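Hi W., the heme C complex you wanted:
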Amino acid sequence: MQFKKTFAVPLSLIVAAMLCSLSLPPNEEKAKNLKILPKNISHDELMKTMRHFNKALGVKCDFCHAKSKDNPQKMDFVSDDKEEKETARDMMKLTNRINKKYFKSGKDENGQTIMTVTCYTCHNGNAEPKKLPEGGPEGAPHGEQPHAAPPQDH
Ligand code: HEC
Ligand code: HEC
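Structure:
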């Protein structure tokens, strides 16, 4: 009796979980307008990527995503109306290319590209990465010092 009881509980949980996942509308979570990310990306992976974008740029979702035309209280994540979303796509290509070509990053055992350079590497929490360190022309790279002090020798 005791055995049957403890066995019955977990089994009913498993059945309940299966029924729940079956009752989800099949395409509720499928992204419709992916041009860079894999089309079969899981909802979790997609949201992880999006939250990285938020943190890396120090912005909210609406920095890249447009509001719904029918209901301004809601977001329309599928829409490409905001320029920032297209810029972000270019940035994703750039970041993938840097990793593949210059870091030969390869893939991990799950087939995910290993990212040595991420959005955060450049953006560091800013929508527009800083071009120069704070303070003084010594921050400028060579060839970009038109206003530097005249040479001291000769
Ligand atoms: C820096 C810009 C940026 C930010 C910030 C951002 N996204 Fe995105 N998001 C994108 C881009 C670009 C795509 C399309 C990727 C592609 O084409 O592969 C996308 C795609 C999506 C999609 C898939 C839509 C579809 O069906 O095609 C969802 C959902 C989404 N984002 C949700 C979010 C949420 C939620 C947040 C905030 C937590 C967020 N995004 C923040 C740029 C951004
Ligand atoms: C190699 C450095 C680098 C990496 C990596 C990088 N970015 Fe950028 N990003 C920049 C620079 C520099 C600018 C500013 C360009 C300008 O001022 O014209 C920028 C601008 C942007 C903008 C436009 C910001 C605005 O104010 O309109 C978005 C959106 C963006 N990046 C998203 C991303 C996302 C998302 C990633 C990761 C997939 C990423 N970036 C990775 C360097 C980088």
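The first strand starts at residue 66 and ends at 67.

W.
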